[in-house]
Amino acid sequence: MRKGQIAVIGAGKWGQALHFALSSKQECFISSRTKRDIKNFVDLDFALSCEYLVIAIPAQEIRTWLKENFVFKNQKILVASKGIEASSGEFLNNIYADFVPDENIGFISGPSFAAEVIKALPCALVLNSKSKELYDEFSKFFPDFIKTYYSKDIIGAEIAGAYKNVLAIASGICEGLNLGKNAQASLIARGLVEMQRFGKHFGAKKATFLGLSGAGDLFLTANSTMSRNYRVGLGLAQGKSLELILEELKEVAEGVKTATAIEKLSNKYTIYTPIAKEVKLILDGKNPKDSLKDLIKN
């Protein structure tokens, strides 16, 4: 093992932004499936031999990636992905639990557009882990322009980080339909209540949804065209097909698959999630204007 060394796995925009940030204070490596022209790019075997790993691969690919590539050798891991596995409805911490012990893993949450992080603009993140020692070790890697906070509420941070992407799609639809800022603010506020209600069922803490991981990330993602999921909503409101939207996006919009996962879990546990439900129906082809009528009626 390369003691004391850190590597980012996944070279999408968020992975590259984290690599940039972590490189501010020490040498940081980065690896992905395809070769990128990035400083300190290494092959996967080299990256996996580092003591500290930041994994920034899409949520829907994580289980397969772990099965095919990962062998636990006491690495310390920070997960930078946000989402719920659509095929099973499983949370990422449950998927990782089959490969990494609790004391060796943490999860990043909080408002953080990659485009701003890579410009070294101020940012605050929560590192969620059952191990305060793990937080202390990872927090030292982050640059001065990123303030880090510690939380033990892993499930709360996971749900907030995943759910806000679905709500961002809804907010983009609201904007695309020109419904006005009153409607958009109402939607986001009710969305915050909805995801807190969903989280409560799984034991998440209410405070998590009122802080950086919940309200902070939601307000950011649901209010800007810098958000991929928000842009998905805009496209749907304009009558574009989901296939065309995703083709134009050229990036992963985690909210699309997460909407499916939330629907599965809501149906399974009878949780009231009206906004997420309508987003899923719109993604499946329902007219957004009909969804608006149904939301107001119900």
Percent range for β-strand residues: 5-15%
User: What share of residues is helical?
Assistant: 40-55%
Biggest sheet strand line-up: 2-1-3-4-5-6-7
Mean pLDDT: 96
Number of beta strands = 7
Q: How many H/I helices?
A: 15
Q: Gap between N and C termini, in Å?
A: 56 Å
CA gyration radius, whole angstroms: 19 Å
- What is the overall shape? globular
Q: Enumerate the spans where pLDDT stays under 50 for 5 or more consecutive residues.
A: none
Main β-sheet: number of strands, strand sense, barrel status? 7 strands, mixed
Give the SSE string. Answer: EHEHEHEHEHEHEHHHHHHHHH
Structural class: alpha/beta
Features:
298 residues, alpha/beta, seven-stranded mixed sheet, 13% strand, globular
